Amino acid sequence: MYKIKVNSSHSFDVSKETMEALDAIETTSNNFHILKDNISEKATILDADFNKKQYIIKVNNNVYHVDINDALDQQIEALGFEIGASKKVNEIKAPMPGLILELSVAEAQEVKENDSLLILEAMKMENVIHSPRDGVIKSISVKQGETVDKNSLLITFE
Does domain 85-157 have CATH number 2.40.50.100? Predict the structure, then answer.
């Protein structure tokens, strides 16, 4: 399932099957002919950032800013590690209920982005929770061996 956001205001859920069934043909580089409900549309990709999955598309002289999030992007967002917004994350919350197997940090410890903070066991799988940014650990709200619910506060940054 893809989450499509258009002009930062309209969101759509689009299945892989729907995307594959789209009747679109690339006529020239970045220009497409689309047939929907027997209506012909012309679309042009004006700008594309493949790594960020952001596109500017012109359809019938209307310009749209399109962001595409796949399953991995949605999971990252659910964990609170959105790209761009991740630098501002001040709290780490449990992405799912589970057991705290290991704490890798202590209060007042300085951490770098992607350092391991803790290991959360959920559904017999060990999930390593990494730091979303450089910072200092302000507080740790859990202890090793503790069971947590989804969205429980785990760690706070200064």
Answer: yes
* Cα 131 from Cα 157, distance rounded (Å): 10
How confident is the model over 4-48, as pLDDT tens digits?
A: 888 878 888 888 788 777 888 889 989 999 888 888 889 999 998
According to CATH, where is 2.40.50.100 located in the chain? 85-157
Neighbours of 135 (CB within 10 A): 20
pTM exceeding 0.70: no
Task: Name every residue whose Cβ is closer than 8 Å to that of residue 21 and which is 6 or more positions away in sequence.
Answer: none
Task: Kindly report the backbone phi and psi dihedral angles of residue 98, in degrees, each rounded to the nearest multiple of 5, phi listed first.
Answer: 180, -170
Phi, psi angles (nearest 5°) of residue 20: -70, -30
